[in-house]
Amino acid sequence: MSQSSSRSKGTNAKEGKSGDLKWWQLSLLGIGCTIGTGYFLGSGLGIKITGPSIVISFLLAAAGTYIVYHLLALMTTADPQEGSFCFYAEKAFGRWAGFSCGWNYWSSKILIMGSQLTALAILSRFWFPGIPLWIFAAVYAVLSIAVVLLGTKGFDKVENILAVTKTAAIVMFIILAGIALIGWIHGGNDNRPGIPNGVKAFFPAGYRGFWSSLVYAFFAYGGIETIGLMSMQLKNKEDAPKAGQVMLVVLTIIYVISIGYVVTMVSYEAITEKESPFVTALSSYKLPFFPHVFNAAILTAGFSTMTASLFAVTNLLVTLSKDGDAPRIFKKKLKFRSLPLPSLALAALGLSASVVTSLLLPGKIYAYITTAAGILQMYNWGFIIISAYKVLELKVKDKWLSITGLLLLVLAVTGTIMEKSIRLGFFVSVVLVVLIAIVTWIMTRVWNKSGKTNKQPTP
């Protein structure tokens, strides 16, 4: 997911220039930016936990994602703001909400980068299984930091090309899998599970396993809040809901068909976090080129996504600093490239933590980091829903939608407690939220004493 964020509180988009994006362009952009390593590799965690019922998990996640985007689009249409969801959280509940929302978002993006970094390392071991995970993680972390330091001129154009590459890779899988199932490609597994013929076959891990898989389905749709930010570039802001609806319909079709193929072509027990489930599904067919081409496409696009995330997180901290929500040192930039070195250093520290963790916990690191990142993402989305409930005069239908959305998010988060293999990720997210809450409480007392309960951005 290509991430960019701005939280400037004083700029009303109604007073600024209108964007030039058409709704269908935003939809296509959103599709390319949303499909990432969380889907290509992270979906395997969900399949492994629940089996064929992961298809329902993706449908429920699509419904929850639609609700979040719908409410964010309503707020954007009613009061266009560059700060988007963090601005609306502050508008709804006060400065503490905007502060905690911003830092929760920053923390979630750091974890998502850690998940992406680990995914890249795992995918690279497809060719070099003997090299430790942490070495690949360290190499990709250094390369990503180097790309950011070199500057980002022309990077957006490269991102667009790689977004097409990611989409083409999954379309290639859908076509090849369809042809394979017809029998036009030799090979295949004699014990292919096929279409489930009963409840037990559809829920082989029981309802608890299904519950635990929800967070990974939601994680595959991650980035919808960023598309909400990008909706500010629409020529007609009222088209934001339509753009999101089309994007989610296309994503859901792509996700459900491709995941459906996987669970009918290979047993869910054969899926591991060591390779993409799409590679596993076609591994028994005589397609020697596919694993290498598919893996290379994901690896290339995944690296670009992580680098874009690093750039976005770096600039997000600068914005937090300008808004008075982070130490002033993070506003400082290198003179020769206008790069926020202190902010980049903190983000690099977060990547380093992922490298160290992959050294200490090589077998479970991806599951833990991805779980924690997915949960923090759910917290962000929860902020959006409750902010809309407070800021807008919602119709009865939208009120019911918001309640349904919150329920789905709660199910996704609590489901991680049910599965022992991913439970640590839940506690990591809780620790981060508690730390943010403590800092927010301290800052609230500081603001009250100084009389700065309202935002006063520094120039």
From TrEMBL:
Residues 27-448 form the Amino acid permease/ SLC12A domain. It is found in: Membrane. Signal peptide: none annotated. Its main location: membrane. Keywords: Amino-acid transport, Membrane, Transmembrane, Transmembrane helix, Transport. The chain crosses the membrane at residues 21-42, 54-74, 134-151, 163-185, 205-224, 245-268, 293-318, 339-359, 365-388, 400-418, 424-443. It is a multi-pass membrane protein. Gene3D superfamilies: Amino acid/polyamine transporter I. PROSITE patterns: PROKAR_LIPOPROTEIN (PS51257). This is Aromatic amino acid transport protein AroP. It comes from Paenibacillus auburnensis. The gene is aroP_2.
